[in-house]
Model the fold of this input.
Amino acid sequence: MQLANIFKVSLLGFVLATAAGCSSTGGGSDAGSAAVDNGEAGYGAGDRAALEAEERAAADAARAAAEAEQLLNITTFYFDFDQSSIKQEARAALEAHAAYLVQSGSNVVLEGHADERGTREYNLALGERRAQSIANYLTVLGVSSQQIENVSYGEERAASMGHDDTSWSLNRRVELRYGQ
Amino acid sequence: MNRNILHATLMLLIGLCLVRPVWAELTIEITQGVDNPTRIAAVPFAWQGAGVLPEDITSIVSADLSRSGQFVALSERNMMSLPTRREQVFYRDWRILKQEFLLIGQISPRAEGGYQTHYELYDVFKQTLVVEGNIKVGRNQLRDAAHLISDKIYERLTGIKGAFSTRIAYVTVNRNASGRDQFKMQIADADGYREKTIRDSKEPLLSPHWSPDGNKLAYVSFEGRRPAVYIQNVGTGKREKVPSFRGMNSAPAWSPDGKKLAMVLSKDGNPEVYIFDIASRKFTRVTRHFGIDTEPSWSADGKSLIFTSGRGGKPQIYRKHLLTGKVERLTFEGDYNARGRLSEDGRYLVMVHRRQGVFHIAVQDLKRNRLRVLTKTHLDESPSIAPNGSMLIYATNDRNKGILAFVSLDGRVKSRGPAKFGDVREPAWSPR
Done:
């Protein structure tokens, strides 16, 4: 848990740095020299604009970091019955995880699961395939396959103990675990 | 008198749950039998030694035969006489009770320890001896003697080898107070007695499969939080780990000669079937497809492997001919057919089959290509055929608890065990 928090804090730093980098390259070196010129002439209209731009950039960066942080809190990804394709809504969070993995170089375990319907061994294979589709997506986004390990539990580790559609939908999942 | 004391003691023992079987309790509930079961009376054997016998042989024989659904055993309460020798048999007594066959016998202690059992089976209408025999067993093997007698009677009267002297491996799961699952790999006699835990783990255990000589079990264990296949001698407890790789290491199935294991690895990125040669420790890849390939099982001649594949979009059962490399699809009816097992003669394929969203056990006659659903329960899994091909055991659900149940391959006989504390799953019938 603590380890995860440290990762998140370091990620926040990473996102802030990236955001700041973006805004400075966006403004270019001309904006910087202009600010120096204006500084000699005292408070001017351009000065205020630069200040506001800086604040805006900082706010943007903070918002991006918060969003990334929120996305990183999503560590469980759900699937349809007998399917191993990633749902559209999972992509943003997976992209945040990929960015973090690329930056941190840390390892991740992808735990694949299935619902109780169907045979145990087929479900083990299905869990493996689900973990593998997440792994494929992460590697496309630049994560090294050496950082990723798949472990499928099939239907052996249910997240929800019920025997209905709701429970089943919660059990068809891949759980992403850091630092193991 | 002596017998009454013996009975009282047995009932007490049973009452104290000292010999409570896993799924059999005292009677496996026969939910459906054959139309005209054979009526047999097993008279308590005479005990010619001192003290009280630890087991009631004739009750075990009666229970064995009744469980097959093809016999009805007369309760001792209803017997008019209790002969233990040929000259004490009055056929009229048994005709009045509408019995077709009569079993009598004696048990004597052996000088070197253990027991000598003599049994005689009579045909009540023909008034003839059908079969007799002697069985010598060791100190703790009276139940074995009983199962051997059941095997002999069953074979003599049905023409099919008995499978009462076999064992079942299965997995039990119990959730403790803190919500953690405790998995146990268990083996027991085919009637549920003499249960023994061969492996205990907090991580999942699954897919037990017996070696052809009945001495070893291959299974999957997640100990160390990674799946691996283990081979364990059930007698000595000695265990060895099959070389494992990243990803899946699963679904072990012994070849009929016991020299190889078919199993599933995902080391090349996708679940595929491999053959592991136990002596050389080499793996040979069998399937090659981007879909799921799993649940391999050998034909009795060792020339082909059946497996479940998602290559057609939905799970179906295929067969790979190992010599030619040819792959053929075996199942076409329904959108989910998996975990196939072939009968010894290769004619019947039993499997998990989904019909209208419900998972049942089905059998397909490969000669006539006819599929028949055998069970009416739901979430049915893991069919495993008895070595004599008469019955199969499978896992099903009763009030959300896993239980084990039996069905004959012709669908005529059905029985099931009562729900027990915890879950019972993944039965595997020993080959001998």
